Amino acid sequence: MPKKETKNSIKKHTEAKLQFYIEYLNRYINILLASPWIERVNIYDLYCGAGLYEDGKIGSAIRAVDSIILAIQSRKSQSAATINLHLNDLSKNKTDRIREIISPKSDAVEGFNVSYSNSEAYDLIRRLAIGFQQKRRKTRNLVFIDPYGYKDINQESIGSLMSEGKTEVVLFLPIEQMYRFKGKTTDDEVEKSYIPLKHFIESFSLNADLINSEKEFIKALETALTFGGNYYSASYNIKNHTGHHYGMFFLTSNLLGLEKILEVKWKLDPQEGDGFTGNSQGDFFLETERKDVLKSRIIDLLKQESVDNNKMYEFVLLQGFDTARGKRVLSDLCEEGRIKVIDTVKNKQARKNTFKLKHDDWKAKTPSLIYQIHSGDQQ
User: Fold this and answer.
1) Are residues 26 and 72 in contact, defined by beta-carbon separation less than 8 angstroms?
2) Of 168, 186, 179, whose CA–CA distance to 220 is shortest?
């Protein structure tokens, strides 16, 4: 199905979606360009649209091109990696329009290639999955899936993209529509128009009867996208002007990828790191409540066992917090005398505000700190 063009201008919730994608893309590209081990970075926009809105604002494809070019040109030394951007839309008129805009920019940049196709998304996903299995170890893939609807998306198609551990997926879904009609999918036989939604819900083993709000639908799907804990996932809810929600979902096999998407979430929503509401007014109490949740979970964890800095790093991320806020919470707990941090190298209490929540340490399996509950917080 061709992606419908948004009329007149970019709505606030559409802008929030594009910011989420491009903010992550910026981090993704810069990390991979800095790595000596990566030779090829493939980025796929499966529903790229025409690139321009009627008010002159730009969509995902052109923003991605600008982001990639900036990253390449900002490198102080030449990267070994080649970046390939593939833009797909069922409408050839749309990809032709994008090509006219993009080619003068991209053709002049060494190490950057743009290609186009006009395939059904489900067929392109199938072909990508086969190709990903044949790619070399030094290749990484990012797939942006922004469909009109959900008929092309199911657990099998997403899982097939992830199977080799070299791919990350950013997925946008119309949660309002899916939640509104979920009750139409529970019978063995349903109306034809609801069959795609029924297949979607069943493929992810979602219990429609237990989902009682749009935000619960988003959280249930976020959990399902871990594929039983085999991958890391994160969600970002986007409220439109009618008060209903869309959902952005991120899926990766790499803990660093999860860390970077959480940085995006907390940058876009400094109070809760949860989503876009259209309300830019800061709320101190929301941020405090979120920090208190992490405090309680850390205390509960340390009541069960002492943990090293690598396990704490992973734990903070899995609770939906970026490391900056994780460190603030740990600092508060130390100041309150509820936990203590031991330097295992020096065999004494660690220097103040030393927490070492770092991916490099986690990857190298070289912890140097131990977190312990304070004796007065054991009960």
Assistant:
1) no
2) 179
Q: Is 72 a residue whose pLDDT tops 80?
A: yes
Can you say how many angstroms the Cα of residue 132 is from the centroid of all Cα atoms in its chain? 20
Does pLDDT of 158 surpass 60? yes
The candidate with the shortest Cα–Cα distance to 249, out of 350, 354, 153, 114, is: 153
- Give per-residue pLDDT as tens, 13-22: 889 999 999 9
Number of residues that this document lists for the chain: 379
Angle at 138 between CA 132 and CA 141, to 5 degrees: 45
Q: What is the CATH number of domain 284-377?
A: 1.10.10
Mean pLDDT of 163-170: 92
Query: 246, exposed or middle or buried, with CB in 10 Å at 0-12, 13-18, 19+?
Result: buried
Confidence label for 4 from pLDDT (cuts 50, 70 and 90): very low
Delimiting residues of CATH 1.10.10 domain(s) in the chain: 284-377
CATH 1.20.1300, domain 12-276, yes or no? no
pLDDT at 189: 87
Average pLDDT over residues 134-147: 88
Among 121, 135, 144, residue whose Cα is nearest residue 163: 135
- ∠ Cα 276 281 9 (to 5°): 50
